[in-house]
Every structure is written in C-alpha cells, then in structure tokens.
Amino acid sequence: MSRRATAGLIASWTALLGAGAGCVEVADARARRDARIGQAEAAGIAVQVRGGLATVYELTPATLHLWLQAPDVTLDLVTAAGAPPVEIIAGNALSDATLAALAPVAGVTVEPIAAAAAPTERRWRVTPPPGGGASTLRIAPADSAAAGPWRFAVFADVQEAIDRVQDIYRRMSQDAGIRFAVMSGDLTRNGAPEQLARFRTEMTGLAFPIYMTLGNHELGVRDDLFHDYFGRGNFSFVYRNVQFTLLDTASATLAPVVYDWLGGWLIEGIDRVHFVFAHIPPLDPIGTRNGAFASRLEANKLLSLLASGHVDTTFYGHVHSYYAYSNAGIPAYITGGGGAIPEQLDGIGRHYLTVDVDPAAQTSQVAIVRVD
Amino acid sequence: MTDLSSEAGRDRSAVGVVTVAPILLALLATDAAIAGGGAGGAPPLPRRGALPAAAAVVPGVLLHGSGHFAGGDRPTAWRLLRVEGLGLGLMLAGVGGLALTGASQRTVEPFIWTAAAGGGLFASSWAADLYGVLAPPGGTGDPQRVLPGLEARFGTRYVSDPTLAGDALVGLALDLRSGRWRFSPGAWAATDVGSNTRFEGELAFRFVGPRAGAGAAEAADGSFFDLVAGGIHHRYSEDMAGPLRAAFDMTTFELRADGRYDLQRTARSLAGSFVEASAGAGIGAYHYPAASTSEANTLLLARFGFGIYLGRRADRWGELRAYYDHRHDDYAGGLKMPGLGSGPLGHFGVDGRAFLTPHWGFRAEVQAGAAWVAGLALVYRYGRVAL
User: Fold this and answer.
1) CA torsion, ordered B94, B96, B97, B102, to nearest 10 deg
2) pTM for the whole structure
3) Which end of chain A is more exposed for a tag (fewer CB within 10 A), N or C?
C-alpha cells in the first residue's frame, strides 16, 4: 500500500480520534477545587470551614463573608493577638440561624447585627480572644438536631428560564413547611459569571436557602466558576439527623477522588435517612436516550455503592421532565422542571418536588408540585 | 482481483438493494444528478500529487470532494460533496429533532439514528476524498470474497478508566462461520484486582456478502448485510471502604443490522475502501447484589465507520477501519468531554488486523470514550480464504 495513503489515513483518523476523545479525567480539577473550598488566609487571620460547607467570598482582619452550603456549618478561625472584631456575613443561611462560639467557650463574644441584604443573609460581630489563637464557631438554627418530621424542596434545570424562576420561588414560598431547597444543577444557560450572579440574585426572592450542586450547563465557560459563587460541587451535611450528599456529575462521571469521599459519607450516614442529589443521573430510565453517565459500567458501580451504603432516595436533574423510578433498588426521582426546554409529549411542565421526611421513623414521602 | 462469477454478480445486485440504505440512497441520488457521472460512467482516476492531497485537507475538511476536484475527477468530487451535504442535513435533522422535542422519550430513537447516519455520511465522505487521492491506483487492497471458517483471537487489553478497577484484561474470541451463519463467542477477564469480566456472544445471519466454506461462491466484493442477535454478560466487583462494596452484573440481549458497502461501487478511485453502518437496540437486566434486585434498561445501538483493505494476497492481507460506536456499556463507554457535552455520545475507535502467513496474524485496536482502551491480539484463522 502507498505510504502516502497510510500516512494520510492515519493522520485523519488520529485527528478524528483526538477530536472525539476528549479527556477521561474531566471532573478531576473540580474535585481538587472542592478540596480547597472554605479555606482562606489574610493578614493576621485564617479560616477553615469544616467539610468545605461554605465558600469564603472575602476575608480581611475585619470581615469574613461566607456563602453557606449547609444549614449547620462549623468553622475554625485563627486570629492574631489583639485582633479587631470580625464582622461575619453568612449568605444562604437559614433565617433563624445563630452563631455560637464552641471554643473557647469564654473569651469570644458574639453580637448579632440586624442589617441584612436578604432574608437568608445573617450577620454577626465576633470579638476574638484578646490573646488571639483558634476559635471554633458554629452557624446553625436551633432545630438543627431536633426530632420530628420536616420538609424540604428539590428542583433543577432552570437554565435560560431564569426570567421566570420567581414563579417557582413564589409557589415554594406559599408552603410554610419548606425548610430549605436543594437544587440538582443547571442553574444557568452556560455558566457565565453574569448568569451565576443572576441566579444568586434571584435567590433573594426566597426566605430559605438553596443548597446546590452544579450541572453540565455550568461548564460552558470555565468549569470551576460555580465554585466561586456557590462552593463545592461534592459535599455532604447532616441536618435533623438526615444525611444530605450532593455529587458533581456534571461531566457524566464522578472524579475518582470523590469515590473516596463518598465512601466516608455513606458510612457516616449508613444508619440515617440518606438522600443523594446529582445532576446527571447514573442511568437514564429511558436507556436508549442515555441522558446519563458516559459509562454504564461506572454508572452501575456508583449505584451499587449507594445501595451498599443504604441510601434511601436519589434525586437528579438533566432530563427536563419528571420520572419516578428505581436505581439499584433505591427510589429515584428526576425533577428537571425548572423551566429549561421541556421534554415534549410527556404532560409534565415546570415543577418541583417536596420531600417530607421523618428521621425517627426513617421514612420519607415525595410529592410533585406543578408550577404551570 | 477475482473475476466475478454469475452468482457473484447476482450477489452484488442483492447487496446493492439492502446494504446500508441511507448511504446507498445518497450515492445513487447523486449519481443520477450528475450528467455523465456515476459508477457506470467510469470517471477518470484523480491525479495523485501534492495539490489534490492538500486540497483534500484544505478546503477538503469543509468541502468534501475537494481532493478529487483538484485531481480532475469531478463526478466523484461532486458526489462526495453531495454525500457530505446529505450527512449534514441528516445530522441537523437528528440534532434539531432532539432539541425541538426536548429529547422526548417518545421520539428519541429515530432522531439519534438519523443524527448517527448523518455523522457517518459526513465523516465517510471526507475520509473517502482523502483516500481517493492518496491511495495508489487500484486501491490499497482487495476484500476477502470467501471467509475462513474459523478465526480465533487471543489477546490483551489495557483499559485506562480512572473510575473502575481491573484495567489489565486478557481475552479469547472466536468467529465460527459456516455458509451464511456466524457464531462468535468471546470473553475478557481482569488479571489484576477486582473482577471486571465480560462474556460476549453473537449469532449472525448473512443475507448477502462473502460467506465461508469450501464450496462458498466468491462474493462480488466485501459488501455485506447481516442480521445479528447478541448477548453480553458483564460482572464487576470492587471492595470499597468499610462495609461498602461496588458490585453488579449486566446481562444484555441485542438485535441489530450490520452492513458494509465497498466504495469501488461508486468510484474507481475508492477501490479498496469501504463504509460500515450498524443500527439496533438492546435490553439489559442489571443486577445489584447489595440490593438483591435486578432492573431493566435499554440501549440504542448505532455505529458507522470507514475502512480500507490492505494487500492483495490472502497470506499478506489485512484491513484497517476507524469508527464511531454509540455503545455506552462496554469498556470504552461514551465520551467524556470538557464543557457541556459529556454523556450522550458513544466512543471512537480504530482497529485493524493483518495476516502475515496463511494462518497467523494480529489484531490491534484503540478506543477513546469514558476510558481509553488499547488492545493487541494474536489471530489464527483456518479454512478457505479467497480475495
């Protein structure tokens, strides 16, 4: 055969392969970014948020501005001797959250500040110990460990329908029982900074916070801009003895290190009611469509792992409709009704889910709430 | 080249009717539209040289057929351009349909198949243009017109998947052919930690195309049309932290149509090259020991490729092909990409096999999807072979 023909064909096929191949480690950089969330240092002051459950917007000797990704957040603050009072601003907080010093119990004074830019913004003036050193602070509502049933909401896939998202928020706000909402990604059309900022601004229409992970539509500009605005894509928290785990499946995979983190969260929540949220579902209930993980082997690995960790329910987005099904024996819901281009011919419009959970009875009930 | 027997001539006509319908329709439609063109018109071979080769790349990457046009084979050039246009149209129709319906579960399959067919035509028309101006006159090789009754492959695969264990595999696969029938069992097993084992089996009936057996008539060329029923059983287990364990098995049954169309039928310059297409669907039962449950899921199958034959002697023969495969349930899985698009697409691959003696050869492959897969196998064949 002609060497020219061989070289030409190999070159073109290599180009084809290379163009299509992409990268098998597309989520790794975001996981590495996750690991750095909640840590900051400035002149004479340093902060570390446990579990990365808040991102640090600003840290100066006089100001610590956080965006919370959980109702109950503990942080370690290290100050220099004679440091001035620090104004702590917590965005995306429960409106009844308070700040308390866990350590040292004496020597740290906390004073609430009334002024707030949104119902979910809380402010305190914290005077660190005169001698400086480490202080452990906790931002949490009084009912953080309360027993009894309670309710939260789940939604996803707002994307280009941001102009109409207040319809959803108004409907949610009519339900006084909702403690907070969880969003399974696709806040924006393509993840541009102005779109992320707009989503955050629109959240002021709600009296409760939204904890969220990212979707593939947050990856259109740069894949870790979400982290600047909202924090980690992979994280887990406990509220009222219910474990919440949010996973970044925006690239139709999990970063390998997240499997290690997930193992710890599953063990931590194995005796609790445990809900898992992600944007792209491991398996699409309509398999021929495959709005799902790139690899069914990985999808089934993840699902079998969740099953072995006794996860109670999984919630996804990505598919712009509503599906209730089972994955690895775990009840699963797709709730992509935030307003993005809807799946046609399904009779499902914009919607969100409410979840009533009774941690003591280890039961939960999911209901769909139609907005249109 | 082998002379065509009368049976082979009939075979050729039959292939022309049923093989890879969209591609054939596209080619025939363009033949009719070009005065003096078409396979029957025996257009001249394009001139070889730097100019046609360069033109096949720029502007050929956008205007398929540019290489043939620069080489003087204008009927083939226009035909390739029209195939490109049809491919683009089908891709737009498929992707547009998916967008308009929000990938509705009621309409998703035809739109994906349409988009895949369009992608195949689009990619193949460019590859054909490149091939036609780079390959030597007469092409790079001839197809097998009679296939061996037995082909056995023993080899190894390395799977670079950061999310799964069991990356070093060994495997054995057989193609047992008799007349129109083929039975192909195979197995892959991990040699390192964990279990990542896959058993595969296919039963295929060939409606037209090269067959196997001492008395098999020589086919007109390598074109074929098969109906294939297949089964896959994949087992995976991996110990995780504490009491956790990732373990599952997938059992899938599938039905699909496979076709190959030798491009010498459309232009002399394309002798020795072929396009392939495949479409079908599968249904799987996924079992999770941790939940003591099994659940059903479906799988859409679509594949297209472009390939070339290498060599004109049975004992020095091979073929090489590049392809897109929409499968998401094998070691390579679907594409993961930076940005928005991970998940829906399948994987790309290149594979080839070459025989260095009447019986022995090797097969090599590379696939790029959710994982990189590289494989090398020793191949043994037995039975009558004719080119």
Assistant:
1) 130
2) 0.92
3) C
Mutant choice from A1, A188, A226, A322 vs B, greatest count of B C-beta within 10 A? A1
CB within 8 Å: B300 and A288: yes
Question: In terms of C-beta density within 10 A (0-12 exposed, 13-18 middle, 19 or more buried), how is residue A143 classed?
Answer: middle
Cα(A123)–Cα(A155) distance, integer angstroms: 28
Question: How far B6 CA lies from chain A's nearest CA (Å)?
Answer: 30
**Nearest CB to B336 within list A23, A263, A326:** A23
Backbone angles phi, psi at A290, to 5 degrees: 55, 50
Q: Is B371's CB within 8 Å of A24's CB?
A: yes
B80-83 LR contacts (CB < 8 Å, sep 24+): B80/B125, B80/B128, B80/B129, B81/B125, B82/B26, B82/B29, B82/B30, B82/B33, B83/B23, B83/B26, B83/B27, B83/B30, B83/B121, B83/B124, B83/B125
A328/B290 touch (CB, cutoff 8 Å), yes or no: yes
Q: Chain-centre distance of CA B70, in angstroms?
A: 29
In sequence order, the β-bridge partners of residue B282 are B254, B299
CB nearest to A8's CB, from B130, B241, B245? B130
- State the Cα–Cα distance between residues A339 and A336, nearest whole angstrom: 8
The answer to whether the CB atoms of B338 and A22 lie below 8 A apart is yes
CB nearest B130 (choices: A12, A253, A289): A12
Angle between helices B108-134 and B74-100 (to 10 degrees): 160
Write out the DSSP string of A51-75: GG-EEEEEEETTEEEEEESSSSEEE
- Look at residues B330, B387, B23 and name the one whose alpha carbon lies nearest to residue B188: B330
CB atoms within 10 A of CB A102: 13
Residues B74-90 have pLDDT tens digits of 999 999 999 999 999 99
Percent of chain B surpassing pLDDT 90: 84
Please report residues of B whose CB lies closer than 8 A to that of A319. Answer: 103
CB contact under 8 A, A16 and B348: yes
B91 vs B93: CA distance, rounded Å: 5
pLDDT tens-place values along chain B, 387 residues long: 333 333 333 343 343 334 344 444 444 444 443 333 344 456 678 888 899 999 999 999 999 999 999 999 999 999 999 999 999 999 999 999 999 999 999 999 999 999 999 999 999 999 999 999 999 999 999 999 999 999 999 999 999 999 999 899 999 999 999 999 999 999 999 998 778 999 999 999 999 999 999 999 999 999 999 999 999 999 999 999 899 999 999 999 999 999 999 999 999 999 999 999 999 999 999 999 999 999 999 999 999 999 999 999 999 999 999 999 999 999 999 999 989 889 999 999 999 999 999 999 999 999 999 999 999 999 999 999 999
Determine the Cα–Cα distance for residues A99 and A136; give it in Å rounded to an integer: 10
Q: Is B53 helix (H, G, I), strand (E, B) or coil?
A: helix
The shortest C-alpha distance from A156 to chain B (Å) reads: 15
Question: Whole-angstrom Cα distance, residue A67 to residue A55?
Answer: 5
Phi, psi of B326 (to 5 degrees): -80, 0
**Contact between chains at A253 and B107 (C-beta distance less than 8 A):** no
